[in-house]
Amino acid sequence: MNRKLIFEISGEGKKGYSLPPLDIEEKGIEDLIPTNMLRDIKPNLPEVSEAEVVRHYTVMSRLNHAVDVGFYPLGSCTMKYNPKINEDIARLEGFTSVHPYQPEETIQGSLAVLYELNQMLCEITGMDQITFQPAAGAHGELTGMLIIKAYHDNNGGEDRNKIFIPDSAHGTNPSSANMAGFDVVEVPSNSRGGVDIQALREMAGSDTAGLMLTNPNTLGLFEEDIIEIAEIIHDAGGLLYFDGANSNAILGITRPGDMGFDVVHLNLHKTFGTPHGGGGPGAGPVGVKKELVSYLPCPLVGFDGEKYYLDYDCPHSIGRIRSFYGNFGAVLRAYAYILTMGAEGLLNVSETAVLNANYMMEKLKPWYDISYDRICMHEFVLSAQRQKKQGVSAMDISKRLIDFGFHPPTTYFPLIVKEALMIEPTETESRETLDAFIDAMIQIAKEAKEDPEKAHTAPHIAPIGRLDETKAARNPRLRWSPN
Amino acid sequence: MKVIEDLKYAKGHEWVKVEGNRAYIGITDFAQDELGDIVFVELPDVGTNLDADDILGTIESVKAASDIYAPVSGTIVEVNSELEESPELINEDPYEAWVAVIEMADGSEVANLMDGAEYEKFCKEEA
Question: How many domains does chain B have?
Fold first, then answer.
């Protein structure tokens, strides 16, 4: 396979087009553009033929792993299959040819999608209103934190500056709270992998702004004490933020609104089957309870009984957090996904996702350590401490899995589990795929004992072998240069 | 795992070397080994006032980003800016590669820290 960079394929005078002679007088570029606007030095663009361009990019695309290529059990990322019918819907001309500046009466269909998906997601989460502006999960977190801040500032709680975040949380949580101007206070986990409510009770007080929680949490475990946690925070005058990254475990089973959460984000690119890899784009809609609706980014979509309209009546709005109405293409795919699945289908999604994860966890338990021995939700966390003692680290195991054609699981996260491997199969994988992955994990565990070198030098069959990750982080070379 | 008997230790795996009113802060051999290859150190600004357990800086390795906590209260009077260019110094010799110096507000806080033997025991319980 030719893996040269396109600049290295370049040859002077090669080109991918051939134009007929002009039937009018040809003019030099200096006659068309003022000379002070022209470059002194020609841009260094590759000169290649059409076939070379096509082969170059096709070869590159084949070097990628993707959900459409193979199993992708990346924990907390919900790399489920993205149904292709959603792509058909998103490509309907009525959607692709609209412009956000068109008059409302000419984009009634698009507004109806936003309005109806708002209703569907409110029903799924137990919230009262959704904004579609946030472009992804962490963006949703920031939006939620700004809403909580605006709410406190507007209700005499200017001094409420503390946000509680469990030590198992996604790294984006503390970042988002910090960016919104809060101080982050880490809450320890208890021996069952949940929030230590005794510690939380002692920390909560008049300076409490709120709590950010993922449920099920990043250990793949359901927070059993969530009702009590919500009471502690609400009694202290704080609000609860639900990180919806793990929503694939609870669709149709329970709702953050019923657990006591006030603000929720969902990742449409995780839970609702819209594309995730390759930059998405994602979508991280944020839902709130009715006391917080007036703080949402503007505008929202309303319906007066006859027509849909953009509603700019948002007196306490935190302002826009993205241009126009969010990543509408992703919103549209999620809308198609929910309509395709239906209520029963969504329930089935979560039940199957949870079943798949428990099946794999049980099969792998004899071979790997588990920090919290409980029934898991849609994902589970193994610890490779046993293998580490044999000289094979979690990273080695991840790299070796590539040889079997699998994407590695999330590695070294959550931070509270040593040598963590976080595995999320999703509902869209067959029993045969799950078994093949289990077999690979068992083989790697055996190799750790008998032939650890095999894992140290993996991956062996990937297009590129083991990278020097330290060097890549310390001295990254990110751009090709001609010299 | 190397522990130096004469130093003081905090639960966040920071070491403290006291010289008069000044406390040199670094991370322990146990901490650097757990983190793996360190690729970035975020240092505090000189002049920053910190309470004990406030975040003093951040260490990023190929595995994870971890906060360094101030073992004692005081003011940052010096930082080891060599770490900005060469974060690997912490991996090579964690007890030589100090991160910052705190001018202590209350020298008696040192008594709350562990000594070498206590820290060694603490690490065994953690592992």
Answer: 1
